[in-house]
Amino acid sequence: MGSVIRKAVKMPQSIASVSMLKLKGLSVMGACGYSDIKTGRMYLQDHVLLVVLEGVYIVRYGEQKYTVRKNEMLLLHKGIAVEYEKYGEEDSRHVLDYMMFFLKDELLHEFMKISSFPSSEPVSPAPTAVHSVNERLLSYVASLKPYFEKPEAIQDELIKLKMLELLFDILDADKGLLNQILQLRQQRPTSIVEVVEKNLLNPVSLQDLAYLSGRSLSTFKREFRKIYNEPAIQWIRNRRLEKAKELLTHSGISITEVCYATGFENVSHFSKVWKKKYGIPPSAMRQRNVAGVSIAEG
Q1: Span 33-44, mean pLDDT?
Q2: Residue 54: in which H helix or E strand, if any?
Q3: What is the mean pLDDT of residues 172-196?
Q4: Quick one: angle between helices 135-144 and 156-173, nearest 10?
Q5: Which GO terms label this protein's molecular function in UniProt (predicted)?
Q6: Which CATH architecture has domain 8-183?
Q7: For residue range 139-163, what is the model confidence (pLDDT) as tens digits?
């Protein structure tokens, strides 16, 4: 994927250049075209079901790597920053065609109310894996294609029905995958330390961290302070700045890349909080480091 560090785009809120079907709590993204290799980073704020119709979509996070090819699908959990590589293959004229379904708890609860699917859940979650897309699911995806031509003309109720239809079709195709999806509907409290350490360098807000931990924002802030003896926003900012200082000192990547690699979403804001902590701009710190002059924290 190369050594360039890119800003992690928040999904699905930050999507601007692809076709979308949206209503409250539900989003479907569709992308189709001719594509050479494209790479990037994205932070998943919702659970995502990725369905590839043509081409290849490679996802990496941590030490995990998944390659999703034609007529395959992959379920990705929310709260992770992933690197991706996607492209159309030569034997299909470099066509890249895929859809992403963003799944929220409200939809899963509604499905459980109207379906006869057993409500019992396995003790341990099923591992993440690539699954095959059967003919019924392919027909379902094809039925969505016309909706992307004029998404503003599609009624919200129809999108909701189509999303419920997706879950029924997955039930027919792969009960194990559906069970894995339904496990996502219960947001259980998670260790604050675990959530913070896992997402420290991701572009997440305190509201995001509270949500991922299964707590309200006020409860998250209160419990965080008990653990770390410091306000959450201050502690997280300082840890990110320390990591940024390490990168500026020991790597040759640009200041913009350092900003994105340490969870900051805006270079000007990064420079402002950096100067407040260290007394000089990041660029001056790098120049001093090149000249062999050390910098002390302010």
Answers
A1: 80
A2: strand 47-54
A3: 79
A4: 170
A5: DNA-binding transcription factor activity; sequence-specific DNA binding
A6: Sandwich (2.60)
A7: 999 998 888 887 778 888 888 888 8
